[in-house]
């Protein structure tokens, strides 16, 4: 009986020790602060990223948040002015930014996760003021482009103004401060329609160029995390999730080389 009693006591001690160890492990885990969500910086660029309304936050935000979740991280989207979005991403190690056009000037400023979408660029004007977009006409025109984008350097015009948002560009066009907007035409149209300007009152050029919109990371983001995000993007492409999300959004697809 003494032998059996001793064995029972030994088992009880081991069970108690195991329980204490488990409690200690749980307490340690509870004491650890939760992982900081990745900051997804963007601006209001409908129909791609949408700050408010029925279609918010927009298809590229939804796609990127799905990508972040697939990589095992939490994500938090923030809509801020575009120059500020780029500044935050440049200095904070847990920051991501969309939709960014890759250029030689930006190449070393970010870590490039992958391509999300292809869009076309062109001119938009009020038809009663400007309806031709040949080189001679544009040479005497006043243009506006979005600040902190790579487009103004390649344009030839009488003047080129930089605006901080599509809303500002639409305002400048409606007040006759500029003759034409050079930007993604879909986003420009939505901004002008929000100011009550009908589509029939606008003249659009043929697409001038196409570019790829990228998801990019801060230069200070750990390389292992960047690779997790890249792997998650490849998985979304492979299983068809990326194509399905974009098709459901109704976004038109431009023909981009390398897309």
Report what the structure shows:
The protein is an alpha/beta fold. The chain folds into 2 domains: 1-32; 37-252, 3-Layer(aba) Sandwich (D-Maltodextrin-Binding Protein, domain 2), CATH 3.40.190. Helices cover 39% and strands 23% of the residues. The chain is built from 8 helices and 9 strands. It has helices spanning 2-31, 59-70, 82-91, 135-139, 166-174, 185-194, 223-238, 241-249; strands at 38-42, 75-79, 95-101, 111-126, 142-146, 159-163, 180-184, 202-204, 209-217. α2 packs antiparallel against α8 (241-249) and α5 (166-174) packs across α6. It is elongated and about 95 Å long.
- The CATH architecture of the largest domain would be 3-Layer(aba) Sandwich
CATH class call of the largest domain:
Alpha Beta
Q: Assess the beta-strand content as a share of residues.
A: 15-25%
- Using the alpha-carbon principal axes, give the shape: elongated
Helix segment tally: 8
Average pLDDT reading: 88
Helix and strand composition category = alpha/beta
Extract low-pLDDT stretches: 28-33
The total of beta strands comes to 9
Name given to the CATH homologous superfamily of the largest domain: Bacterial extracellular solute-binding protein, family 7
* Biggest sheet descriptor: 9 strands, mixed
What is the string of SSEs from the N terminus onward? HEHEHEEHEEHEHEEHH
CATH topology group of the largest domain = D-Maltodextrin-Binding Protein, domain 2
What keyword list fits this structure?
single chain; 259 residues; alpha/beta; D-Maltodextrin-Binding Protein, domain 2; 2 domains; 9-stranded mixed β-sheet; 39% helix; signal; Transporter substrate-binding domain-containing protein
């Amino acid at each position: 009986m003494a032998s059996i009693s001793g064995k029972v006591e030994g088992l009880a001690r081991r069970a108690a020790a195991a329980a204490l160890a488990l409690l200690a492990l749980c307490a340690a885990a509870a004491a650890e602060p939760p992982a900081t969500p990745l900051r997804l910086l963007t601006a209001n660029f409908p129909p791609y990223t949408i700050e408010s309304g029925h279609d918010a936050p927009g298809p590229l935000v939804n796609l990127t948040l799905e990508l972040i979740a697939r990589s095992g991280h939490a994500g938090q989207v923030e809509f801020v002015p575009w120059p500020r979005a780029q500044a935050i991403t440049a200095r904070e190690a847990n920051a991501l930014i969309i939709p960014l056009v890759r250029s030689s000037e930006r190449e070393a400023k970010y870590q490039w996760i992958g391509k999300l979408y292809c869009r076309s660029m062109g001119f938009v004007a009020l038809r009663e003021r400007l309806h031709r977009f040949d080189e001679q006409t544009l040479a005497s025109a006043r243009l506006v482009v979005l600040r902190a984008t790579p487009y103004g350097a390649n344009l030839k015009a009488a003047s080129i103004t930089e605006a901080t948002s599509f809303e500002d560009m639409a305002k400048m066009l409606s007040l006759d401060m500029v003759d034409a907007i050079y930007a993604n035409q879909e986003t420009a149209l939505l901004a002008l329609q929000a100011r009550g300007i009908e589509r029939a009152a606008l003249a659009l050029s043929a697409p001038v160029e196409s570019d790829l919109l990228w998801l990019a990371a801060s230069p200070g983001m750990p390389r292992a995390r960047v690779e997790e995000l890249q792997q998650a993007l490849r998985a979304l492409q492979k299983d068809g999730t990326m194509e399905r999300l974009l098709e459901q959004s109704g976004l038109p697809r431009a023909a981009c080389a390398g897309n």
